[in-house]
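Protocol step 4 of 5: obtain the predicted structure for the target chain.
Materials: sequence only (see below). No template structures provided, no constraints applied. The aim of this step is simply to have a reference model before the mutagenesis design in step 5. Sequence pasted as it appears in the construct record:
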Amino acid sequence: MTDSEYFSPYRPDGKLYGFICVVTGATQPLGKAITLELAAHGAACIYACSHSRSDDFVSLASAVHATHPNTKLIDYPLNSADEQETLSLIDETLNAFGRLDVWVSSSGILGPPSIDATTPADLLKCFEANSMAPFFALKYAPPAMGKLASKGSYPNAAPKDQKYGSIIIVSSVASTYGGCWGPCYTMSSHAALGVVRAGVAVLKGKAISMPRNPQQFQSKSIVKTPLNSIGSGVRINCISPGQIDVGVDLKSFDMRGMSSQLPPASLQSIEAQKQHIGLERAGLPIEVARVAGFLASGFSSYITGSNLVVDGGAS
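Step 4 output (C-alpha cells):
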C-alpha cells in the first residue's frame, strides 16, 4: 500500500480523515475511548453501536461533538452477533457514505467467574459476543471495505482512491492463556483470536464470498465490486488488554459478568499491581484506544493477523 493525496497517515487534518468507521460496544468504557480516538484523528463518521439506545450515548455524543464537531456520530442499536443486523449495518454505511474503512469489534462480555456458575447458555452468549461478532465482521465487512468512493458532501469527506480496510477485534489477554476470569471468558477469547488468525488466509487476495442470497445486501454498488480483488488492502488484528481500570468497583460490579467487558481493576490490589505488572499499575481505556487508532490507520499498513497485547508488561 502506498500513500496518496487522499490516503496518508501523515495528513495534517488527521490520519483517519474521511474514514467511515463502525465501533461496536461503543457505550462501554473501551468502546467510548476508541470512538473518541477515531474522532480525534479526523474520522468523518462513526457508527456508535450498542445493544439499545441509552443515556450513555448522550454523554459520548457530547464528548465527541465538544472536541471534534466535524465527526458525525450515529447512535446505532446493534446486536453484533446477529448476521442480518450486521448485514443491514454494512448496507447502511454504503448507502449513506459509499464506503467503509474501519470496523472495531469491542462488544465482548466476561461471563461467570467459575465453571460451577457457568451454564451452557452462558457459554453460548459469551461465544456470540466475543467470537461470533468478530466472525461476522470478517465475513461481511471486507467486500464493503474494498469499494472505492468519490468525495462526499459531508464534513471531513475525502475520496477513497484505493482499497483499504482495518478490522480490529478487542479481546483480552485471556485470548492466549487461562485464569484471567472464568472458562467462558478464556474459551471465547481464544476463539476471537482464532478469527483473527484465520482472517489472514481469508483476506490473502482470495475471492471473498458474498451472502448466498445477494439480496441480503440492498446496495447495488457492493454487488458490483470485483470479487477477485476484494482481499487487497483489508487487514485484521486483535488487541488483548490486560488489567484496565474502567472505573468500576466491586460494589457496582455484576459478578456473573454478563454485562461487563473487563474485570474491575480493584480485584487486584495496588500492591499486587506493582508486583505483577511491569509498569506497576492498571492501564486506562485511552491506552487501549490509542492502539486501536494505530491499527485503524496507515501507520499499521503492514500489520495483519497480529495480537497486540496491552498489559503493561504483565505477561
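Step 4 remarks: The chain is about 35% helix and 10% strand. The two ends are 33 Å apart (CA to CA).
Proceed to step 5.
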